[in-house]
Every structure is written in structure tokens, then in C-alpha cells.
From TrEMBL:
SUPFAM superfamilies: ARM repeat. It comes from Fasciola gigantica (Giant liver fluke). Keywords: Cytoplasm, Nucleus, Protein transport, Repeat, Transport. This is Karyopherin (Importin) beta 3. Transmembrane segments: none annotated. It is found in: Cytoplasm; Nucleus. Residues 1056-1083 have a biased composition (Polar residues). HEAT repeats lie at residues 398-436, 440-478. Residues 1056-1084 are annotated as: Disordered. One of its GO terms (cellular component) is nucleus. Residues 351-594 form the TOG domain. The lineage of its organism: Eukaryota, Metazoa, Spiralia, Lophotrochozoa, Platyhelminthes. One of its GO terms (biological process) is protein import into nucleus.
């Protein structure tokens, strides 16, 4: 096969249209060693007797070979062979007469040149740069063009000589871009500039040195469009610059916007040109929003143009009868303009976009042309997210204009009205649902009777959006009528499917029923039997491949209904439903027709997880059947390929693929359709590990093997987040059933999480990884965490703290930027919120170390103390102060008496922060005061009395129980409670002060928001009741009705429940663990009982005294009585 002729024949076979012949040729080609292949391909390229098509194929294969297997294909060759290959490539470029072939040889040479640079920018092929410069100065226009092409392909070609070569680069590119005679050279010059600027987008010196090329480039683009309206090469390059190196265009932003808007509104140009110019504007709006907002006239004019483009729709004769979702043409003016309006609105935060919408859309909605009405409604949908703050103030008037269109005479307008209402239900929920339900919900229900399937289905979709954010008490008022209508439509559409095979509306109604059940929860129970039989019938009988999606949605609906109504109602159907699911799973595994694109798979995986959540440990028997499919989906490998620009253009139109540009004529494409299933499967594994606890242990090692590598799965954020979230649960399962495996598993998790956090690009995912690290530390305990690992964790936190303060300084600097405005401030605040979230999880990691090591964590903490002090500095954001105080709370709580040595760092701040205007800051310091009362040494007696008056002031403030202040107030009540119990000497008058304070303290109750503080406070209340303290009970137990009401309210609001004493971020102390005072009134109080259990015993005691019952029960509300009865029956 090594013979020249044989290989030439093989290239011909690789291009065969006969699949079998081509497959055999591919097998034979792959069998040739990579280095031999590369040599043979070079021979084909340089042999001009070989047919042109085969030479092209050889160049393409050679480039792919270097991309995929450089080490074997080229690096393994003898040095003299490598030198000769490089020379032959450069000579091939010079002597090639066919332009397309010359470019393909250049691409191959560029690919090889990219591989020749080391980390310091030194090249093993210096002749390549020399060749490029010679081409740029050649009298041969073709070689000058190739020089630009090579530079675009290898913009790092100057390596470590780049800084000193900027004048040469500027001259080289400027001569090409401004060439008066040759369009191809100008286009290549613009592409090269775009590639080089993108490569150096953060290098201010480069941007400054080449800034004079921007006006030249804009003029060249303008001239090119006038000369050849069909060519879009230069505009694509401008899009690349706007996307990756927008700062380069900032000094000429207005000129760029004017040029591009001129192109957008020029109706004589072809659509791709106009769309690319629009893309430049929108991309700049996203990257330079404040700068674009300064060009308000252009923005408002552009919105008007977009509204006009959105009306450019075609009539579709069969639209009314179609039984499929509307297929949108990505290349149409209407959809391109709609998407641009959406992005523009989000980027510019509304006002400039909304001005034109307010002026124009009302008239469009009244226009006799249905296309105008349709476009107006879709415009409202498009800008509602980005303009939500402004539109929210006029929501009533917007709905008054939109809702009547639900009965428009034209079906496509009704369809758009459903779309608009549904979008607003998402963007303005739950305010829309709370304030406008009487207008919106009945109108949508009415459209469910529409005669056009697509309109019916879209009304159902809008109802799903409405239900996602509707308060349950509002939905309940409409539930009977809504359910009746859904039942009617479902039955009718089921018959229609059976008789005519039409299923669009039925599939949507199934989803809508699921959404209603999910929102109604237990209140859906009366309607359960009206839907479950038909849903089970569909699930059992919709087995044809064409019905897989319907069956999948039905499976989803059944599981959501089951989760909504609860285990008791669903239990009789769980067995049959699980049997059907398992039968499907078994069938898919054995059926030859099964395939990886089975649309049921993701629905089944999610349904199993919901049923697992419902059944808890009872789900264990099903794990052997459900796990194979979940694991298979979690292991889906993304399909990735490297493409040139022509191939990328072809793939981009496929919705299942996403194309990412790597450089000039280099792109990678990833098949996204499987990624959603992978993410769903990973999230379900989290559910199983969390719900099944130690019962999941048999699968832990296998799931660890899957999840740990997925921490670095950069194709999908949800996969990485799920992988991290799962880890503490897996470690917990192993610890319960296979403790000998925990040390090795933790070592692996620790190493992988630290690497993932360091490399993670998304701030929210960084936070989730940190939370997983904290959970893992607490789970495995100090027996598993080594000093070396602790030191590595400390190093990670050190880097993250530095990063936090640097980002904060950068935001301060940006406020002095020329483009800073109110909208930019809003964006900076969003960025601050993201950093604050990361900081909170950093504090969680420190907290986990304290929980695990107690006082032994102080040396770890002392290495971070400089950051903890810096967080408390005056002038820092209040969120820094809040989390800084939380860190010191941990020092006090877990450091105990040893925390006193650090008092100078935090006590002055505590004294000031107790009066801080931000409730979250006050809450943090008040909690710290409370833990000091319990855990601080006797030295704290010198300072704690100073906090009593401020705490009482907080508790008794007029707005103490407001939604903003209540959590802080409850912490203050708990802190005083801890003083009363643990530090009475710190109260005025000592022990006597406690007795005097008790009646006042009782009037502060109930509390319910903070479950940990509720445990402390109600634990102390039980202490006092069980000790028969007169100051609490009052003369002749006169206060008992009040006490019962306090307990009942806490139970009714969920503050006191069987699960209410769970950990609450920094709070791990359980009040009821303290031994209560010995009893005098016959009540039993075991020290290990929770406050809830003790309160139930007290209620039972009251219940046994008929003379007390009436006085105590009559003053309770209905909810309070129901909560008390439930507690008494449950225990």
C-alpha cells in the first residue's frame, strides 16, 4: 500500500459515492501508520500529475492528520525528513498556480507552523515567518494574499518577537487593506487583522498600535459592499472583532454603528449581508452596552427597522391544519430581527429599545394587516425580559393591549398572543399572576377551545408558564374549571389521535396537566382519578416509535402528579407505573430497534428520580433496573469535530450542533442534543444518592468514576454542577456501608475538586464546587482529612480571597470609565452578586473545617486571618462585612474560650454592626453574640452586657417583624434567650433580671423563620414550662393560652416540625441538647428530645386537662388548630 500509485487510487476511493467502497477505503487508510500517511499525502500534494480533486483531498487529510495526531504523523519523522517536508510545503505554495489548491497547501503549512512554538514563543520553524514576510512584500498579488492568509491562520506567528514587530505588522496589514486594485487582497488583509486583534484582544499595546487601521477597514468594507453586494467575507471578520476584541472598535464605535445600520436598512442588499451587519451592532451592544446607549438615535431607529423586518413573513396555506410545532426559518428576516430585538433589549436594559416599542407597537396591534399585529405581539415577547423593570410599571396596560388578541380573527395572531402572554408570565411572574390572574387565566383557558391545533397547543404552553409562578391559593380558585377544561380537551384529543393520528395538542395538554398538578400539589388530589387512568393507558399502549415523545411526556406527567398528590394517594399506582417503566427499559435494552436518540429516555430518568423522592428508601428494589439507563445517559460522550469554514457553515444550520470558532478557518462543532440527556442523568444520580443514602452504596464507586471526571466537562455547566453536588452524598453512602473505601474516595474527590475550582470559568459553578467541597469535608470527618489536604484547601482559599478583592477593585475602577452609566452600574452589581455568592461558599468551606476540627481548626484559620480582617475594613461592601462577621462567628462558636485572643479584630466591628442598616449584617453579628453567650469563655462577661440593650432595641423596634427584619429579630430573641439560659450574670440584676424579663420575652414570641433559633428559643420555653416557672405561666396558669398559641403558630408556619432542627448554614448547635431543669409538674423531658417533640408532650398535657382545653383552643386560628391536631395525631 506504500506505493505512490496505490495511495493515489486509495484517495480516489475515499471520494467514492459508493458507501461500501468508501468505507473499505477508510479502513485501509486508517491502517497506514500516521507518519507514512503524512509522507504519502505530501507526495500527492506536490505531484501535479495527480488529479486536482485528489490533491485537494490530500491537503485536507494532511491538515486533519496534524490536528488529530501530530506526534505520530510529524514529530516521529527523522529530522531531515521534517526539514524537507517544511521546505516542500513552502515551495508548493510559491509554485502552485491553482488558487484554491494554493490556499489548501497554505492551510496545511499553517497547521504545521502552529505546532512549532514552545511556551516561550520560540519557533522550531523560523523560516515560516520569514516566508510570510517575503510574501507580504512580493510583487505577486497572489503571494501577498497568501501572506495575509497565513497570518490569519497563525496570528501568533511573530512569537516572542511580536512586541518589537508591531510597526511591521501595521504596515503589512495596512498595505493589504488599503490596496486600491485587488479585492481578494483587501479581504485577506481584513481577515488577518481580525484574527490578529482577536488573538491580542487583551493587549492594550497591540490595540493602540493598530488603531489607525479601523477607519481604513470600515472604508474598505463600505466600498466592498457597494462593489459586490453578495460578498460577506469582510463583514464576518468585523463580527469576529466585535465579538472577541470589541475594545479595539470603541474609539470608532459610532462610525461602526452608522456603517452597519446603513447596511441593515439597505433593502437592495442580500439578507446575509444585512444580517451580519445587524449581528455586529447587537454583539457590540452586548459587549459595550454603555457605549452603544450613547448612540440612542441609532438604537431607536434600529428598533423601528427591526419591527419592520419582523413583518416580512410569508403566508403558509397549510399552517392552520398542521399537526407539528411551527418550524422557524433561522435565515428569515422576521426571526433574525426578533432574536436581535431580544438580545438588544437584554443588552441595553430596556429604555432606548422600549421608547420605539411604545411609539410603534400600539399602532401595529390595531393594524388591519395580520402581519403587523403578529410582529407587534412578538416584539412584546422579545423585549419583555430585557425591559422587564420598565415594562413592569406598565404591565396592566400592556396586558390590556395583548389579551384581546387572544381572540383575534387571524390564527397566527392568536398564536403570537399566546406566545406573548406566556413569555410575560415567565418574565413578570409572580407579579403578573398575583395582580392580573383574573384577566389572563380565563382568557388562556378559552383559547384551549381554538379550532387551530397550533394555537391550542400554544395556549397550553402559555398555561405552563403561568402555572410555574402562580401562588397556590390563586390557582386553587380556578382549579375546578381549569381541570374540567383540560380533561375535556385531553379526552377529545385522545380520540382524535386514535382516529386520525394527530397528536400535537394532546402532547401539550399532557404537559399542561403536569404543570397544573405540580403547582397545585395536594390540592390536585380530588382530580387524580380523572386523569390517571387515561395517562396510564397512553403509557401502556403508545409503544410505536412515532409516539415515543407522547409517551415520554405522559411518563413525566404521571410522575409529577404522583409527586404532587403524595405517596398515600399515588401508592396504588406506583407498582403498575414502575412495572411499565421497567418493561420499557428492558425492551429498549433488548430491542434491536432501540437507539440512542430515544426521546423517552430522559423522561424516564426524570420520572424515576421523582418516584425515588416520593418513595425514599422503598425505591431501593428498583435501583438495579433503573441504574443502567441512567448510567448510560450520564456516560454519553459528546460528538466533536474540527471543521473548516465551509464545513462549519453547513453544520451551523443543524439545531443539534453548536459551532465555536477557534481561529481563521478553524472551528469545532459539538453535538448538543445528547448533552441535555447527559445533564438530566447526572442530576438524577444526585437525587438517587441524596434520597437513598447508604442504600446507594453499591453504586457509589461506579458513580464516582463517572462524576469525578465530569467536574472538568466544559461543554455543559449543568453536568459540572451535578457532578460536584453528588460527591458529598456518595462519600456519605460509602462512609455508612464501606468505611474502608472512604479515605481513597475522599483523596480523589479532594484533588479533583481543587483542580476543578481552580480551572472553572463560570462563577456560579465555582460556588457550587466550593459547596461540594464543604459538604465533603463535613461528611468524611477529621479522620480522613490530612494536614497536607488542609494546607491545599487553605492555598485555594488564599487564591480565591485575593481574586475576590481584585475583582472588587476592578469594579471601583470601572466606575471611572468613560462609558460608566446607571445600566453599567446595574451590570457591575450583578457581577458583585456573583462574587458575593462565591464568597459565601468560601465561608462555607471555612465553616466545614471548623465543624470538622473544632478548636483544632484555629491554626488553619490563622493563615487566612488577614483576609477575615480585611473583610471588616470600613468602606468595604456590606456583603463583605456580613460574611466577614460570619467567619468570626465560627471562630467564637468552635474556638470557644480560645477565640478571646482575637477579640481586637472583631469586637469593635460587632459593637458597630449591631446597629448596621442592612438586616443581613445585623443578623450575622447578633448570631455571633448568641454563640458567644454559649461558647465564649468567662472573659466574654466583660463585653456581653454591652449588647443587651441594643438587642432588645432591635427586638422591640416598630418594624422588627417586617419581612426584611424578621430573621434578624428572631436571632436577637434567640441571643437574649441564650443570655437568660447561659449568661444570666450578663443581664441587668443577674438571676433576678431573668425572672423580670420572662413576661416581656414571652410577648416577643412566636418565632418561626430560623429553624435553628426556633429550636433554641422553644427549647428554653419548654425548660421554663417543665420547671413550672411562675413568671412564665402567670397566676393560675393565666398565660397558658398565650403559650399554646405561640407553640401553635410556630407549628403552623413550619418553624417547629419534626425536621425543623436541621442545620442552617453556620449553625450547628442544637439547643435542646442542653439538659433541662429537673421537673416538678409531672412532665417528662428527655434531654435528647427536640423542641418540637417536647412541645407536643406539653400540648398533650394541656389536652388531658379539660378545663384548659377550651380556653387554649378557642383563641387559635384554623391553620393553628390544624397544625396542633396534626402534631398530636403524628406523635
Amino acid at each position: 500500500m506504500g506505493e505512490h500509485t496505490d495511495f493515489q487510487n486509495l484517495l480516489v476511493q475515499l471520494q467514492s459515492t459508493d458507501n461500501e467502497a468508501r468505507t473499505q477505503a477508510e479502513t485501509a487508510y486508517d491502517a497506514i501508520p500516521s507518519s507514512s500517511r503524512f509522507t504519502l499525502l505530501l507526495q500527492m500534494i506536490n505531484d501535479k500529475n495527480v488529479p486536482s480533486q485528489s490533491r485537494h483531498m490530500a491537503a485536507i487529510l494532511g491538515r486533519r492528520l496534524l490536528v488529530n495526531d501530530y506526534a505520530s504523523a510529524f514529530e516521529a519523522l527523522p529530522d531531515e525528513t521534517k526539514v524537507a517536508a517544511k521546505q516542500r510545503l513552502l515551495l508548493g505554495i510559491v509554485h502552485e498556480t491553482e488558487n484554491l489548491m494554493r490556499r489548501k497547501i497554505a492551510d496545511l503549512a499553517a497547521e504545521l507552523a502552529r505546532m512549532q512554538y514552545d511556551d516561550d514563543g520560540n519557533s522550531e520553524w523560523p523560516e515560516f515567518l520569514q516566508f510570510l514576510l517575503e510574501c507580504s512584500n512580493s510583487s505577486d498579488i497572489g503571494l501577498r494574499e497568501v501572506g495575509c492568509h497565513l497570518f490569519a491562520a497563525v496570528p501568533s506567528v511573530f512569537g516572542n518577537q511580536q512586541a518589537g514587530s508591531l510597526p511591521i505588522i501595521g504596515q503589512f496589514l495596512g498595505r493589504a487593506i488599503a490596496d486600491p486594485s485587488h479585492y481578494e487582497l483587501r479581504a485577506s488583509g481584513v481577515r488577518a487583522l481580525a484574527a490578529f486583534i482577536a488573538q491580542n484582544a487583551t493587549e492594550s499595546a497591540v490595540l493602540q498600535a493598530l488603531k489607525e487601521l479601523v477607519p481604513m477597514t470600515l472604508q474598505t468594507i463600505s466600498n466592498a459592499i457597494e462593489a459586490d453586494p453578495d460578498d460577506d467575507v469582510m463583514l464576518k471578520a468585523l463580527v469576529d472583532i466585535a465579538d472577541t476584541a470589541y475594545k479595539y472598535l470603541r474609539p470608532y464605535l459610532n462610525a461602526v454603528l452608522e456603517l452597519c445600520y446603513k447596511i441593515v436598512r439597505n433593502e437592495e442588499l442580500v439578507e446575509p449581508q444585512r444580517h451580519l451587519a445587524l449581528e455586529v451592532i447587537v454583539t457590540l451592544a452586548e459587549n459595550l452596552p454603555a457605549g452603544v446607549r450613547k448612540s440612542a438615535p441609532i438604537v431607536e431607529s434600529l428598533v423601528g427597522t427591526l419591527l419592520k423586518l419582523m413583518t416580512e413573513m410569508e403566508e403558509e396555506n397549510d399552517w392552520n391544519e398542521a399537526d407539528t410545532m411551527e418550524e422557524e426559518d433561522d435565515s428569515s428576516n422576521a426571526l433574525t430581527a426578533e432574536l436581535a430585538l431580544d438580545r438588544l433589549s437584554c443588552a441595553l436594559s430596556g429604555q432606548h429599545v422600549l421608547n420605539e416599542i411604545i411609539r410603534t407597537v400600539p399602532g401595529m396591534l390595531q393594524n388591519a394587516d395580520w402581519k403587523q399585529r403578529y410582529a407587534g405581539l412578538m416584539a412584546i415577547s422579545a423585549c419583555s425580559e430585557g425591559s422587564s423593570k420598565l415594562m413592569e410599571t406598565m404591565l396592566g396596560s400592556v396586558l390590556e393591549a395583548v389579551v384581546p388578541r387572544l381572540t383575534d380573527p387571524h390564527p397566527r395572531v392568536r398564536y403570537a398572543a399566546c406566545n406573548s402572554v406566556g413569555q410575560m408570565a415567565s418574565d413578570f411572574g409572580p407579579k403578573l399572576q398575583k395582580n392580573h390572574h383574573s384577566i389572563v387565566l380565563p382568557a388562556l383557558v378559552q383559547v384551549l377551545d381554538d379550532s387551530v391545533p397550533r394555537v391550542q397547543a400554544n395556549a397550553g404552553a402559555a398555561l405552563v408558564n403561568f402555572c410555574e409562578k402562580v401562588p397556590q391559593h390563586i390557582l386553587t380558585n380556578y382549579l375546578e374549571g381549569l381541570v374540567a377544561k383540560l380533561e375535556q380537551i385531553m379526552n377529545a384529543k385522545f380520540q382524535e389521535m386514535v382516529q386520525h393520528g394527530r397528536k400535537l395538542v394532546l402532547m401539550q395538554i399532557v404537559t399542561t396537566v403536569a404543570a397544573v398538578a405540580d403547582a397545585a400539589e395536594k390540592r390536585f388530589s380530588p382530580y387524580y382519578d380523572r386523569f390517571m387512568p387515561i395517562l396510564k393507558y397512553i403509557m401502556e399502549n403508545a409503544v410505536h416509535k412515532d409516539l415515543r415523545l407522547l409517551r415520554g411526556k405522559t411518563i413525566e406527567c404521571i410522575s409529577l402528579i404522583g409527586l404532587a398528590v403524595g405517596k398515600e394517594k399515588f401508592i396504588n399506582d406506583v407498582g403498575p407505573v414502575m412495572n411499565l417503566l421497567m418493561a420499557t427499559q428492558t425492551q429498549n435494552e433488548t430491542d434491536a430497534s432501540g437507539d440512542d436518540d430515544d426521546s423517552q429516555a430522559s423522561y424516564m430518568i426524570s420520572a424515576w428520580a421523582r418516584i425515588c423522592k416520593l418513595l425514599g428508601r422503598d425505591f431501593e428494589n428498583y435501583l438495579p433496573v433503573v441504574m443502567p439507563q441512567v448510567l448510560k445517559s450520564a456516560c454519553i460522550k459528546p460528538e466533536i469535530c474540527i471543521l473548516d469554514n465551509d464545513e462549519a457553515d453547513t453544520v451551523e444550520s443543524d439545531l443539534d450542533w453548536q459551532v465555536v470558532k477557534l481561529g481563521e478557518d478553524r472551528n469545532y462543532a459539538i453535538r448538543t442534543s445528547g448533552l441535555e440527556d447527559k445533564a438530566t442523568a447526572c442530576q438524577m444520580l444526585v437525587c438517587y444518592a441524596r434520597e437513598m443514602k447508604e442504600s446507594f452504596a453499591p453504586y457509589c464507586q461506579q458513580v464516582l468514576d463517572i462524576m469525578v471526571p465530569l467536574l472538568d466537562f466544559y461543554f455543559n455547566d449543568e453536568v459540572r454542577s451535578a457532578a460536584a453536588e453528588c460527591l458529598p452524598y456518595l462519600l456519605g453512602s460509602l462512609k455508612a456501608r464501606q468505611p474502608e473505601a472512604v479515605v481513597a474516595a475522599w483523596a480523589r474527590v479532594h484533588k479533583s475538586l481543587l483542580r476543578a475550582i481552580t480551572n472553572e470559568p463560570e462563577r456560579d459553578v465555582v460556588a457550587e464546587h466550593l459547596l461540594a467541597l464543604a459538604g465533603s469535608i463535613e461528611t468524611v470527618g477529621k479522620e480522613c482529612v490530612t494536614n497536607e489536604q488542609l494546607n491545599e484547601i487553605r492555598g485555594l482559599l488564599d487564591r480565591l480571597f485575593h481574586e475576590h478583592f481584585e475583582k472588587s477593585d476592578e469594579r471601583v475602577a470601572k466606575r471611572n470609565d468613560e462609558d460608566f452609566d446607571e445600566c453599567e452600574e446595574e451590570r457591575l452589581m450583578t457581577e458583585k452578586d456573583e462574587d458575593e455568592y462565591v464568597l459565601s461558599k468560601m465561608c462555607d468551606v471555612v465553616h466545614a473545617v471548623f465543624v470538622t476540627f473544632g478548636e483544632g481548626a484555629l491554626p488553619f484559620f490563622q493563615q487566612l486571618i488577614v483576609f477575615c480582617v480585611k473583610l471588616l475594613e470600613p468602606g468595604r461592601p456590606w456583603s463583605d462585612l456580613q460574611w466577614g462577621i460570619c467567619l468570626w462567628d465560627d471562630v467564637i462558636e468552635f474556638g470557644g474560650a480560645q477565640s478571646w485572643q482575637f477579640r481586637e479584630f472583631f469586637l469593635p466591628t460587632f459593637m458597630q454592626a449591631v446597629h448596621h442598616q442592612q438586616p443581613d449584617v445585623r443578623q450575622a453579628v447578633v448570631y455571633g453574640i448568641g454563640v458567644a453567650a454559649i461558647h465564649g469563655g468567662p472573659e466574654y462577661n466583660a463585653v456581653l452586657p454591652n449588647f443587651v440593650a441594643p438587642l432588645i432595641q432591635l427586638i422591640e423596634a416598630p418594624d422588627a417583624k417586617s419581612s426584611d427584619n424578621n430573621l434578624c429579630t428572631e436571632n436577637a430573641i434567640s441571643a437574649i434567650t441564650k443570655f437568660m439560659k447561659h449568661r444570666p450574670e450578663c443581664l441587668p440584676q443577674g438571676e433576678a433580671g431573668v425572672v423580670a424579663l420572662i413576661p416581656r420575652w414571652l410577648n416577643w414570641l412566636p418565632i418561626w423563620d430560623d429553624s435553628v433559633e426556633t429550636e433554641h428559643v422553644y427549647g428554653y420555653l419548654c425548660d421554663l414550662i417543665e420547671a413550672n416557672v411562675p413568671a412564665l405561666l402567670g397566676p393560675d396558669n393565666a398565660n397558658l393560652p398565650r403559650i399554646v398559641k405561640v407553640i401553635a403558630e410556630a407549628m403552623a408556619t413550619g418553624g417547629l416540625s419534626e425536621t425543623s432542627n436541621s442545620d442552617n448554614r453556620t449553625k450547628s448547635t442544637t439547643a435542646s441538647g442542653d439538659n433541662p431543669t429537673p421537673q416538678q409538674n409531672g412532665l417528662s423531658a428527655a434531654p435528647k428530645l427536640s423542641a418540637y417533640q417536647r412541645c407536643v408532650f406539653i400540648l398533650r398535657h394541656v389536652q388531658s386537662n379539660s378545663s384548659l382545653v377550651e380556653a387554649c383552643v378557642n383563641q387559635l386560628s384554623e391553620d393553628q388548630r390544624e397544625a396542633v391536631n396534626s402534631a398530636l395525631m403524628g406523635q
